[in-house]
Amino acid sequence: MNSYEQIKKLLFKLQPENAHHLAEILLRSDRFLPGVFDYIASKNLVTSEVLKQELFGCTFPNPVGLAAGFDKNATMIRGINALGFGFSEIGTVTPIAQAGNPKPRMFRHIEEETIQNAMGFNNDGLIAVRNRLEKQYPFSTPIGINIGKNKSTSEENAISDYVKLIRALHTLGDYIVINISSPNTPGLRDLQNETFIAE
Asked: What phi and psi, each to the nearest 5 degrees, are found at residue 175?
């Protein structure tokens, strides 16, 4: 049995969200282990001229990245990089911190080998995330920023949430993802219309 299978057996004894919090604790522990994450990254990061791409004015060393939803608050950028990902996307970030949906809100589907995230944009909010990004950007691999409206923001006022986030964060990442597709925020998918996108 490889080490991943052994770790997985232990993690599966925890509720999914608790397992996620444990992973976050480990992946943000780099400040207590200077140089260790850099060493791990040197062993894990796959670099090749065949895989490398120049996009958005920056270099993606490989095309395998970690999408938003895992590092919601820009606390694990160095740890994620050490795992070998060619880029990572933080968020979804909203202007004001919010708790997200009631628990349970993360579910394992063992047969399908998947996890369902129904957390609802729980995050520390714009100011906290911006402060963390200011200390880390630019980073050795690209950082994407996924942004969304607050649950309490009406559809009529949604554009102001996105504008506020873009103005505050556009210099602290390599690309921005405008999240209007999550099923976990009521009414969010109503923004998938030509008028809103054009505006």
From this structure: -160, 160
1 pLDDT above the threshold of 80: no
In 19-39, which positions are buried (b, 16+ CB within 10 angstroms) versus exposed (e)? bbeebbeebbebeeeeeebee
* Cβ 145 vs Cβ 79: under 8 Å: no
Check if 182 is active-site.
yes
Q: How many structural domains does the chain have?
A: 1
19: containing domain: 3-198
Q: What is the structure's pLDDT at 33?
A: 81
User: Of 135, 28, 111, which is closest to residue 77 (Cα–Cα)?
Assistant: 28
Is the Cα dihedral 143, 58, 86, 67 positive or negative? positive
Return d(Cα 91, Cα 97) in angstroms, integer.
12
Q: Are strands 114-117 and 106-109 parallel, antiparallel or unpaired?
A: antiparallel
User: What mean pLDDT do residues 113-132 have?
Assistant: 96
For residue 67, what are its two tokens?
């999408």
DSSP H helices, 89-191, are: 126-136, 158-169
pLDDT tens-digit series, residues 90-115: 999 999 999 999 999 999 999 999 99
pTM of the model: 0.93
Question: Of residues 3, 42, 88, 182, which has the active-site annotation?
Answer: 182
Contact 14, 22 (CB under 8 A): yes
| CATH number of the domain residue 90 falls in | 3.20.20.70
- Cβ-Cβ contacts under 8 Å for 20 (sequence gap 6 or more): 70, 106
